[in-house]
Amino acid sequence: MTTAKPLPTSIDETEAFLAGEAYVADRSLATVLFLALRMNRPLFLEGEAGVGKTEIAKVLAHGLGRKLIRLQCYEGLDVASAVYEWNYAAQMVEIRLAEATGETDRERLAGDVFSERFLVRRPILQALEPDAAGPPVLLIDELDRADEAFEAFLLEVLADGQVTIPELGTVRAAAPPIVVITTNRTREIHDALKRRCLYHWVDYPDAARELAIVRLKVPGAAERLSREIVAFVQRLRADDNLFKAPGVAETIDWATALAELDQAALDPDVVSDTLGVLLKYQDDVARIRGSRTVQIVEEIRRQASAAA
């Protein structure tokens, strides 16, 4: 039987825990994560797409040996998709069988068809169920894509670790799940929900931390190539007014692609040909391809020579 693994007991242990799971975090993230675990509070992570917010929930689940339950939010998400619904087809079969046997007690029949055996558990309700390995990690991903009405429903779950089902009553977790909420800030989340969480803005990493990430995630990339990739990406984020700046996930993908092409350093022609791995909008690709690529690569090389 799987047993729960202990939670980190200090910020230093939390940093070591994240590093052991190949997640390169700064001290502030390790601090808020430690506090969220210690205080049994949901962790609300905000930041641009691709900076590693979702990965934190995956790391927690894997490192603690817990089940990961993911609720991917989208416009129109409702209680039936996120929490529970009834198996209407099975309920109708039950009603027809009762009618065939002459069952006339409607109150008893209603109690039968709205019992747990006809309940379809969706992610949030699943997260409230006991587990031998300990409370699961509930990832509520990209909450900003859902409607405000769904936010309001979440308040009961986040504040009390429970869900009210009108036909059955209140379902309460014996131990609340570890909740991680992410948002890309396409719209503001209501203060009432944020107040129930510990908040952290996950920013793009600085050059040193991003280089450490590339070294860890793409060990096959040459050292010079890794340095130039990070310098190129950092320059795009800082200097070029892109529609969507590349995230860490794109940096890793690009490093992997260039390593697969046996590149030892950035070549302007290869960079132009592979920009679709790094940038996801045609206007951004067109802005950087060609002369701008050559300019950035030359600037990176001059700065590296000057620093040597």
What does this structure look like?
The chain is an alpha/beta fold. It has 3 domains: 11-79 and 122-201, 3-Layer(aba) Sandwich (Rossmann fold); 84-121, no CATH class; 207-303. The chain is 51% helix and 12% strand. The protein contains 16 helices and 9 strands. It has helices spanning 11-20, 27-39, 53-64, 79-82, 88-100, 106-113, 123-127, 148-160, 191-194, 207-217, 223-239, 248-260, 268-273, 275-278, 282-288, 291-307, and strands at residues 43-46, 68-72, 84-86, 119-121, 137-141, 162-165, 169-172, 178-183, 198-201. The strands form 3 sheets. A 5-stranded parallel sheet has the order 2-5-8-1-9. Helix 1 (11-20) packs across helix 2 (27-39). The model has no long low-confidence stretch (mean pLDDT 91).
Topology:
Blueprint: H1 11-20, H2 27-39, E1 43-46, H3 53-64, E2 68-72, H4 79-82, E3 84-86, H5 88-100, H6 106-113, E4 119-121, H7 123-127, E5 137-141, H8 148-160, E6 162-165, E7 169-172, E8 178-183, H9 191-194, E9 198-201, H10 207-217, H11 223-239, H12 248-260, H13 268-273, H14 275-278, H15 282-288, H16 291-307
Parallel strand pairs: 1-8, 1-9, 2-5, 5-8
Antiparallel strand pairs: 3-4, 6-7
Helix pairs in contact: 1-2, 10-11, 10-12, 11-12, 11-16
List its traits.
3 domains, 9 strands, five-stranded parallel beta sheet, 308 residues, Rossmann fold, alpha/beta
Class from secondary-structure proportions? alpha/beta
Low-confidence stretches: none
CATH class of the largest domain: Alpha Beta
Cα gyration radius (Å): 25 Å
CATH superfamily of the largest domain: P-loop containing nucleotide triphosphate hydrolases
Choose one word for the global shape.
Answer: elongated
Distance linking N and C termini? 56 Å
SSE succession: HHEHEHEHHEHEHEEEHEHHHHHHH
Number of domains: 3
- Helicity, in percent? 40-55%
CATH topology of the largest domain, which one? Rossmann fold
> How would a crystallographer describe the biggest sheet?
5 strands, parallel
Provide the CATH architecture of the largest domain.
Answer: 3-Layer(aba) Sandwich
